[in-house]
Fold Homocysteine S-methyltransferase.
Amino acid sequence: MGFAEALAAGPLVLDGGLATQLEADGADLSGALWSARLLRDDPAAIVAAHAAYLRAGAQVLTTASYQATLPGFAAAGIPATEAAALLRRSVRLAREAARGRAWVAASAGPYGAMLADGSEYRGNYGLSVRELTAFHRPRLEILAEAAPDVLALETVPDLREAEALLTALDGLGVPAWLSFTADGSRTRAGQPLEEAFALVTGLDTIVAVGVNCCEPADAAAAVPLARHASGGKPVVVYPNSGETWDAVTRSWAGNPHPPAVPDGAALVGGCCRVGPPAIAAIADSVRARSR
């Protein structure tokens, strides 16, 4: 059974924030590479974090490649050949932790993630679709070569970057989901989510569309909109805990909300500040609904 077929039999439980678990285990993620630094310096910590989510009931493990890019590694003094090996390692580590019991989603975060300044919550980088395509294509090629079950094109803040990612995906032979970061009914860059979701209509390579890294209430509201605007594609939602990231103070503020499983979601999990206990609660809820 392929990943798309598993979706049809879903819902599937995603993992939570990988960085959240790594920090809980004592990892220092203060640098610009964030969790991607551990691909080189402490791969065992990444396997342990993945394993924690597997034990919690996650059926999909997302690789530690969200902030792993060739330019980002180059800025840290890591040459392109080693950077490519680290991207492939991210898939191998997730596969090792999954032990045949979970799907592996290779994460590709937005251009703004590389900047490490909160730009993924704003978008509007001043780059053209062509420039963004040129940024994303090499990483997607490397990740696809590592044979994940699916590519997670995630935390996308605006339509232009989504267009670039869809172009960069062409011909890679790996299914993908496309997930926007939202504020209410709009992308972080201010475009209507309905227009964003409609980009994937008729694209067989995109097996799910939805939102992540947003308020839980916004995630629930996005489900029927995503299904309708995309022409009936499965919907993926994995919101934050409800807390808000301050890129200036590099800290979280606000009160976390309890996890929930929105009606109609085919892929459901958590993003920032959502750890294994919350994923276990989501898994319990999914099992209860399937009885």
